[in-house]
Fold this sequence. Notes:
Blueprint: H1 3-24, H2 34-46, E1 48-49, H3 51-58, H4 62-74, E2 78-82, E3 90-94, H5 96-120, H6 123-141
Antiparallel strand pairs: 1-3, 2-3
Helix pairs in contact: 3-4
Amino acid sequence: MDKNLEFVSDLRTVVGRLIKKLRKESVTGQQLSLTERSTLSLLYQHKAMLPSKLAAMEKITNQSMSTILNHLLQLGCITRTASKTDKRKVNISLTVEGERLLLQMRNERDQWLSKAITQTCSEHEQELLKQVLIPLTKIVDFE
């Protein structure tokens, strides 16, 4: 196997395992699907969005987003408000409970990751992790 492809495969595997581990380490987050968690994050970031915009950003159908939004509504995480400019449209935003849930999930993951890093990595390795954030961000932003 090409050395670069071997590295790429190893990187993909490790990042995938880290993501799975982080999901597991958030007891709060286990009640929601990945797309539901991501939708809460988008709403936290953008404050209010149309369902069609959420669907486009999540790269799913409007129908799938509707199912997700219905579940989040049942959990009390979101609210629907008629658009001021077009009454046919509905803006989705987080409720206080939705924001609390999202921040709790983030905190659980951050606490676990902080503990894992400090207990398994030397100071030098921790500095390397900080340095790798820049290229990893570039990769994530690549279209």
